[in-house]
Amino acid sequence: MDVKELLAGLYSEQGRQNPYPLYAALHELGPIRAIPDRPAQSTVSAVAGGYEVVDQVLRDPEWYKQSPPGWQDEEILRTFESSMMFVNPPAHTRMRSVFAKTFTPRRLGALEPVIERVTDGQLDRMAEAGAGGAEVDFVADFAYPIPALVMAEFIGLPEADLAWYRQRVDWIDEFLDVDGKTPERLSRANTAAAELRAYYRELIADRRRTPGEDLISGLVEALDSGEVDLTEEELISNLIVMFNASFVTTVYMFSNGLPLLLAHPEVVAALPGDDALTRGCVDEVLRMEAPVHFLARAAPRDTVLHGVPVAKDENVMLLIAAANRDPARFPDPDRFDPRRSGPPSLAFGVGLHFCLGAAVSRLEGRLALPRLFARFPDLRVTQPHSYSGSLFLRGVDKLFVSTGS
Ligand code: HEM
Predict the structure, then answer these.
(1) What is the pLDDT of residues 29-45, one digit of tens each?
(2) Which of 15, 165, 199, 280 could connect to 10 by a Cys-Cys bridge, CB 3.0–4.6 Å?
(3) 267 CA to centre of ligand 1 in angstroms
(4) Residue 335 carries which DSSP code?
């Protein structure tokens, strides 16, 4: 199989359902390959799946995030391009430092009881819905509401707004996929960005009048006292991007992880009460079933990466989910082994843009999973599941289970 066939396979429905045989084929071809006969408008000249090369590019601060042409004309792209996730230093450093200060160990500690309370509430709902052997959608009752409610409380979004908010997140995520740049998806993403900006403007005004303990109140106070170097519009862009980034990713950590975990009943039985094993499970789920499959970076100058030339300002597609199964780094990469030692996976990225919320997601996994299995030791999946149509954010959107009660 050559690179062109491999990429076509990856973008097909079958490839999105199960890209792992294609990643294995890519590893056979080498750590990075040039993309032959690429369309004239494409700036992506190579695809990389080898751990070493993906890690090297992400860690190199000179490789940069390229803005799409004409971004100034679209509300969604203006929002992205004024948030830390999409910009380069020095703007990135300035914005990230403002938010990094809010993810302190103290704040994370304060999240623990929130996660436990939200999890127990959802487990009660699952027990109720699953009574008498009825099927329960694990995504609707566990994987989705836990990250949504935890992050909403952390940021300071009213719970009642979440259903409305979710629709806007979906519109933005559709646009982010490899083939998401259609006029309809762009238009929906622009609408989502405009509506979310208006929403946050109101929320900020409200917290200015009546501050609370949440992240928005803290950031507004810091902004108004001139403590932080951020405009209100940048604050809004970062809040939109942050909530978005925190969302489906963590949902998929749970929903992609459950079938994997249930396939190992001895691990599941040992989870409640074994914190080291739980941490290992969370990291192994993220390695094997990464919610984000690829990133991209542009070359700062003409260069050669593991024998493949990449011209200045051309992009390399960095398949982090393939790197996570690179046999050169993870022996027997398709085997689930929560006690694996070795390098960290690249599920949260690495380098300048390393996920700001990694500790939050890991904490959610560490606290919620043992509670789930302690409450429902006979939990099982009742129907075959499929994955979202997106390769960028790949995960299970519906997962029917029996709680065994
Ligand atoms: C399992 C869950 C998660 C996964 C797999 C994940 C994955 C990632 C990845 C791969 C990146 C790197 C992007 C890049 O290099 O271009 C990233 C960045 C980011 N993530 Fe996460 N994420 C998760 C949860 C969260 C949560 C809970 C939050 C918020 C609390 C969050 C906020 C962010 C932000 C703000 C960035 C941008 C950081 C920067 O550009 O400096 N993520 N995430």
Answers:
(1) 999 999 998 887 889 99
(2) 15
(3) 27
(4) S
